[in-house]
Design a protein that fits this description.
Blueprint lengths: L6 E10 L2 E11 L4 E5 L6 H8 L7 E6 L5 E3 L12 H6 L9 H9 L13 H13 L5 E5 L7 H12 L4 E5 L3 H7 L2 E6 L2 E5 L6 H32 L5 H20 L20 E12 L2 E12 L3 E5 L6 H8 L7 E6 L5 E4 L12 H6 L5 E4 L2 E4 H6 L17 H14 L4 E5 L7 H13 L3 E5 L3 H7 L2 E7 L2 E6 L2 H8 L4 H4 L6 H9 L12 H28 L4 H4 L1 H35 L2
């Protein structure tokens, strides 16, 4: 006999501002079940998840939780009030009797040391700390809303492995197809306020959804034909008996009302890119290019040739140097040695993952038109900005909305809309899939398939890489980059491992390395190093070497699988010492990089 459900939502309805968001939703979570919750942006997935977590009360419906069931929800905006360190925050989530080493293990695996001040965390670091706290007690039910956000490929693959081995029942929301396919065994689709379920994982969802839409369209055509028949009868059979007339007229009105109220998928995205004149055959050629900051090698003797029509993916752990590599290839950063040659007649468009190019005070229309009128030129044709915005799921009312009030997904759609409106023959996209729903990802992929120019794409989305790129440039560590033919899966097959295999040791410091990577160009000015800074720069390498040796020794100690059972005190001491050493090493490396950049800027 099957075990009773741990969590049940029945006939859930919720209205915001007079508009029904959820009209009739159901969710059942059995012990150990793996369910993905899918639907378009704005369909109410996150709201339904919060209702399941008990954080939002529905207008109608019933929520039932089996007595004694523990539920954890991954908070989008965690509350760190009262916690002095990230370790204290995660330990507060442990269940009674849980060992504290699990908190340290989770933090280290997610790129944190446990010593961070929660008030000074970046958005990504805060998100990782919240994920560690949610995972810490291994609850009966784990509700995860976009858990892969702000994670690089090694961390995503680690999380996938961790969840696969967990005993918790899972409910997942994610735009990462590969992640959902690997973990889900059931799918709940929230569409136009109504939930539908299949007892198959995400890999079966899209075929099922498409078949549903086809059946719905057939039913709609049947309704249209019936309406047409009734209208014909009204035109030519009005002299029939009065009572019958009134009844049939009522039936027609009811049919029309049903037709008007039939809720279709909200909006249809139509992506079209502006095409510039063709570029030359050569797009970018790098010969023996190298770039270092002191002893830290970002790129080491890279030779690469990108020709017209190529689709190149760039992957690596955070901090590997992906953004620096893009800057070198685009000519905005000079190499230490070697040469970069750009092709002729290039008209590149760069999509910045930081969204820093969006002015918060500008309206959506101003972003697309540059403040000049209400038309935007796409593919050589003038279009009214409202019509173009509808292609990207914006409502006419949002045309005058300031950028600052847009969600992350809406900002990303706006950036994509602006990028595609500009004539180009080279697209450079840095994490374009962030915050996009699955259907928008499909349409972006179709646009890129049809794009006649050249594409350079940085992404942590394995499925998107498989669908879009023709070759993958992978960071192998120590500044070495190797190109593999095919998509991400082809690269794994040739290389024998994913990105994690050779980048895992660097992953804990990834979150801090990426911002410095973007700051790579030398600071402008004549700042000089003082005596104290010069001495620190000289002695830091030796200190980092000692810390690395200590970390290697501690990891060797902790590699003993029987250590915790045999000597818990020694295990705890080694774990704490390792976390402290890694924290000190990360700070030392950051300080050394900062001083080295100052030295270069001063011409020392």
């Amino acid at each position: 006999m099957a075990a009773p459900p741990l969590l049940t939502l029945q006939d859930i309805a919720l209205t915001f501002g007079g508009t029904p968001l959820i009209e009739r939703a159901e969710l059942t979570v059995a012990p150990g079940e793996r369910t993905c919750l899918v639907g378009r942006n704005g369909s109410g997935k996150s709201t339904l998840m919060r209702i399941a977590a008990g954080l939002v009360e529905a207008d109608r419906g019933k929520r039932f939780v089996q007595p004694g069931t523990t539920i954890r929800y991954l908070a989008q905006e965690p509350d760190f009030t009262g916690f002095s360190t990230t370790l204290a925050f995660v330990e507060a989530g442990l269940a009674p009797g849980d060992a504290s080493h699990r908190a340290r293990y989770l933090l280290e695996s997610l790129g944190l040391t446990g010593a961070e001040d929660p008030t000074r965390l970046s958005g990504g670091e805060g998100r990782r700390a919240a994920l560690a706290q949610a995972l810490a007690p291994e609850p009966d039910v784990l509700l995860l809303d976009e858990p892969t956000n702000h994670l690089d490929l090694p961390a995503i693959e680690w999380l996938e492995s961790e969840l696969r081995g967990s005993r918790s029942a899972l409910v997942l929301i994610s735009h990462d197809r590969r992640f959902l396919s690997a973990l889900s065994r059931a799918t709940v689709w929230l569409d136009r306020g109504v939930s539908r379920r299949i007892d198959q994982g995400f890999s079966a969802f899209e075929a099922w959804r498409d078949a549903f839409f086809e059946e719905e369209e057939r039913d709609r055509h049947k309704l249209d034909r019936k309406i047409a028949a009734e209208e014909d009868w009204l035109r030519y059979g009005v002299t029939a008996r009065r009572k019958r007339n009134v009844r049939r007229l009522g039936n027609l009105h009811a049919l029309r009302q049903a037709r008007r109220e039939a809720r279709r998928p909200v909006g249809t995205i139509s992506m079209q890119s502006g095409e510039a004149e063709g570029s030359g055959t050569l797009i970018v050629e790098a010969k023996e290019v190298a770039k270092s900051y002191g002893e830290r090698r970002i790129v080491d003797r890279l030779s690469l040739r990108v020709t017209r029509g190529d689709r190149l993916g760039v992957v690596g752990a955070n901090g590997a140097g992906k953004t620096t590599l893009l800057n070198l290839l685009m000519g905005s950063l000079a190499p230490d040695s070697g040469a970069v040659t750009l092709g002729t007649n290039l008209k590149p468009v760069v999509l910045d993952q930081t969204r820093a190019t969006l002015e918060p005070a500008m309206t959506v229309t101003e972003v697309l038109t540059g403040g000049r009128g209400d038309t935007v030129t796409v593919g050589g044709q003038n279009r009214h900005v409202i019509g173009y915005l509808k292609d990207f799921l914006f409502t006419p009312e949002q045309a005058r909305t300031p950028v600052r009030v847009l969600s992350g997904g809406e900002r990303n759609r706006l950036l994509i809309a602006r990028a595609l409106a500009q004539p180009s023959n080279l697209l450079v996209l840095d994490e374009p899939t962030n915050d996009l729903d699955l259907e928008t990802l499909d349409l972006l992929q179709e646009m890129l398939d049809d794009y006649p120019g050249t594409l350079i794409l940085v992404s942590h989305d394995r499925d998107f890489l498989d669908r879009v790129v023709g070759s993958v440039l992978v960071s192998e560590g120590e500044g070495r980059w190797v190109e593999y033919a095919g998509g991400y899966s082809d690269m794994v097959g040739q290389r024998g491992a994913g990105v994690q295999a050779r980048s895992a040791e660097k992953a804990p410091r990834a979150e801090k390395a990426e911002p410095r990577e973007r700051a790579a160009p030398a600071p402008v000015g004549k700042a000089k190093l003082g005596f104290k800074d010069q001495h620190e720069l000289k002695t830091l390498p030796e200190r980092m070497g000692k810390l690395e040796a200590a970390i290697t020794q501690l990891r060797a100690i902790l590699a003993d699988p029987d250590l915790y059972a045999r000597d818990p005190a020694r295990f705890e001491k080694a774990t704490a010492t390792l976390a402290q050493a890694e924290s000190e090493l990360a700070k030392a490396e950051d300080r050394w990089l900062e001083l080295e950049m100052l030295r270069e800027a001063a011409g020392a």
